[in-house]
Amino acid sequence: MAQELRFILDVHLGRLAKYLRLCGFDTLYSSHFSDPEIIEISVRDGRIVLTRDKLLLKDKRINRGYRIISQNHEEQMREVFEEFNLRNHLNLFCRCIRCNTPLEVVDKKDILHRIQANTTRYYSSFSRCPNCDRIYWDGSHYNNMKKFIAGITKRLE
Ligand SMILES: [Zn+2]
Fold first, then answer.
1. How far is the CA of 94 from the centre of ligand 1 (A)?
2. Which residue, of 9, 17, 37, 64, is most buried by count of CB atoms within 10 Å of its CB?
3. Is 35:49 a contact under the CB 8 Å cutoff?
4. What's the 54 CA to ligand 1 centre distance in angstroms?
5. Co-location of 8 and 81 in the same domain
6. How many CA atoms lie within 13 A of 96 on its CB side?
7. What residues are paired with 128 via a beta bridge?
8. Contacts (Cβ under 8 Å, ≥6 apart) of 9
9. What is the pLDDT of residue 119?
10. What is the C-alpha to C-alpha distance for residues 37 and 155, in angstroms, rounded to an integer?
11. Domain assignment of residue 132, given as a range
């Protein structure tokens, strides 16, 4: 089930964290997490630990973890997609990439004052993060990300 695919990432995987959030996966990440914190949170929340550190995964308290091999973020995404069969659970652009909070759909007229006129002219669906207040819309980055994800899932076929 998709809701069981919740992650906590080691400190060097910030870029991967953003991509996983963008794909809709509940992903905790902080560049300040210590190893004991990562272990504690993974046990408490039932989160899968993703790390490049073999030693961290040796901790017996960790229920489920995966060691990321690559240092390249695109390859890292491919690894995680393959390991956890993520492509069946994709939900693009439903979660804030900055703070991991599920986004709320907002009415265009309610955010008009916050967005440049040429953006509101060309785009129609907007979402807002209720936690950090960031606004998202289906702009060019949306299409680029769709292509990026399609490229990853295609290579797994
Ligand atoms: Zn946010």
1. 11
2. 9
3. no
4. 31
5. yes
6. 18
7. 104, 135
8. 16, 17, 20, 27, 28, 29, 49, 50, 51
9. 83
10. 35
11. 100-137
Alpha carbon distance 97, 136 (integer Å): 10
72, 104: one domain:
no
Domain count, the chain: 2
Its pTM stands at 0.90
| 104 CA from centroid of ligand 1 (Å) | 10
Closest C-alpha to 83, from 150, 20, 14: 20
Structural domain contains residue 150: no
153 domain residue, yes or no: no
Q: 123: CA distance to ligand 1 center in Å?
A: 21
> How does residue 138 score in pLDDT terms, banded at 50, 70 and 90?
confident
Same domain, 74 and 119: no
The CATH number that applies at residue 78 is 3.40.50
Q: Ligand 1 centroid vs 97 CA: distance in angstroms?
A: 7
Please give the pLDDT value at position 150. 87
Q: Per-residue pLDDT averaged across 138-145, rounded?
A: 80
Q: Is 157 contained in some domain?
A: no
Q: Which DSSP category does 66 fall into? A: E
Residues 7 and 69 in one domain: yes
User: Which residues are CB-neighbours of 33 under 8 A, at least 6 positions away?
Assistant: 8, 10, 11, 41
Residue 86 CB neighbour total at 10 angstroms: 21
Q: What's the CA gap between 82 and 148, in Å, rounded?
A: 15
